[in-house]
Design brief:
Blueprint (H helix, E strand, L loop, with lengths): L1 E4 L6 E4 L4 E3 L26 E5 L2 E11 L4 E8 L6 H9 L1 H10 L3 E8 L46 H9 L2 H12 L8 H8 L7 H11 L10 E7 L26 H12 L4 E7 L4 E2 L5 H7 L12 E2 L3 H9 L10 H10 L3 E3 L6 H10 L4 E5 L6 E7 L9 E4 L2 E8 L4 E9 L1
Parallel strand pairs: 6-7, 6-8, 8-9, 9-12
Antiparallel strand pairs: 1-2, 3-9, 4-5, 5-17, 10-11, 13-16, 14-17, 15-16
Helix pairs in contact: 1-3, 2-11, 6-7, 7-10, 8-10
């Protein structure tokens, strides 16, 4: 969450920015299942046979094809402002559900963590956010990845003690320190409060989308692999800049930069990541649904130019109970609806989660289950095979139909990684 001191009145606005969760998968472009380049019986030589039909020699293919998982690079953007310890603990406690969903589907994953704090050195601005000891002199800012205790910057399926390693980065010491300070010093008007707050707390100006853009542009520690799906999960109890960018906000300095706007992530991913697909999931205070006639892309474009717009005017049905809960968790801290994060999730086909949920298990599982699941093509051993029979297993549903184009079987729906498709056909020798 965020505590924002006023530059003129020595008053302080609080806001907690923590976004629901959303873990993994795309929406912009369809992700195709990786084609199998093995032609000789697709690796099942013991099930192949030679047959002769009307004087023509054929090779008989009869085998099960296992739908592989795909490469997915997962970035968790952790709001490390004061008041977030509750949500960080929830994320940690149910991280195993996320891993379970990934590993059940044989996903080749990488999981990295960064925080929402972005450094700004303009001392005349409310945005001023200098390096400070509490966040290791800026070492955890500006889209840098946080190192796990084993010295690595991302977890993989081969990492040992994944739960313990994740606990060590998702639970932020600077968050706990800030919360302890605010509980011990509830009077924000007291003499010396502002200076003490700057020393005790990380940035209260949460800029999670800016952090995502920094990761995309710089690819720290070579985290993002070519052609891997890039999935982002934002955890925050406040909107970008704690919603201080709103046109009617008291804070004139709080204008969204291009890097704070949802469309910048989509555009930068296309520019810097090439063929990588993108999905952004958010665990936030749910702002409700877009009003009739409002579309995420169009609303996002309304943010451009001035960087000041009342996003709440486009939404209806926000989770008031969750907002109230976030407003009362920590002294001098309030939450806000995750309007901008919600727009980004909608634009990329991501999942929007509930930051106030008592158990993040099902949310994380659903995010993990969606990672890398967009596979819908299988390469055959020859063009236009004879007597083709394709039988997906039950996990893909009885309605999975397909078309064939040359040597490609294309399904009308995505296949489940780890499932099997039985293939039987003849190829001319």
């Amino acid at each position: 969450m965020k505590f924002v001191p006023s530059a003129k009145q020595f008053s302080f606005q609080m806001a907690g920015l923590m976004v629901y969760m959303a873990f993994v998968y795309v929406a912009c472009a369809p992700v195709k299942f990786e084609k199998n380049d093995q032609i000789d019986c697709q690796g099942f030589k013991e099930k192949c046979a030679n047959v002769v039909i009307e004087g023509t020699s054929y090779q008989d293919f009869n085998y099960d094809y296992t739908v592989p998982g795909r490469a997915v690079d997962i970035l968790i953007v952790d709001d490390n402002s004061g008041s977030m310890s509750f949500e960080q603990n929830h994320m940690s406690e149910r991280f195993s559900s996320f891993l379970q969903a990934l590993e059940q589907r044989s996903i080749d994953y990488r999981i990295a963590v960064t925080t929402t704090d972005i450094s700004v050195m303009d001392t005349s601005s409310n945005l001023y956010n200098p390096p400070r000891a509490i966040n290791q002199n800026g070492a955890l800012q500006d889209g840098r990845l946080i190192a796990y205790s084993n010295g690595e910057y991302f977890l993989t399926p081969n990492s040992a003690n994944k739960q313990a390693l994740f606990d060590g980065v998702i639970k932020r010491a600077e968050t706990l320190n800030c919360e302890a300070f605010l509980k011990a010093n509830p009077d924000s008007y007291a003499s010396g409060f502002q200076k003490a707050y700057q020393e005790a707390c990380p940035s209260g100006n949460e800029r999670g989308i800016y952090a995502i853009n920094q990761v995309i542009k710089t690819n720290p520690n070579s985290f993002i692999r070519p052609n891997a799906h890039f999935a982002v999960v934002v955890l925050s109890d406040e909107d970008v800049m704690s919603s201080s960018y709103q046109s009617d906000s008291f804070y004139a300095d709080y204008r969204l930069a291009y890097e704070d706007m949802p469309q910048s992530v989509v555009e930068n991913a296309s520019k810097y990541l090439g063929g990588n697909t993108l999905s952004v999931h958010s665990i936030i205070v749910n702002p409700g649904s877009l009003k009739s006639g409002a579309y995420a892309d169009a609303v996002a474009k309304s943010l451009a130019g001035t960087g000041k717009v009342n996003t709440y005017s486009y939404f209806t049905g926000g989770d008031t109970a969750c907002l109230q809960k976030q407003n009362t968790q920590t002294p001098n801290i309030s939450g806000s609806y995750g309007y901008v994060y919600s727009l980004l999730s909608k634009m990329t086909g991501g999942i929007e989660g509930d930051i106030c949920a008592n158990d993040y298990g099902s949310q994380l599982y659903n995010i993990g289950a969606n990672a890398g699941s967009h596979v819908n093509e299988i390469k055959l051993a020859c063009v236009q095979p004879k007597d083709l029979v394709v039988t997906p297993d039950a996990s893909n549903g009885a309605s999975a139909s397909f078309t064939i184009n040359a040597d490609i079987v294309k399904f009308d729906k995505d296949l489940v990684p780890g499932s099997k498709v039985h293939l039987k056909y003849l190829c001319p020798k």
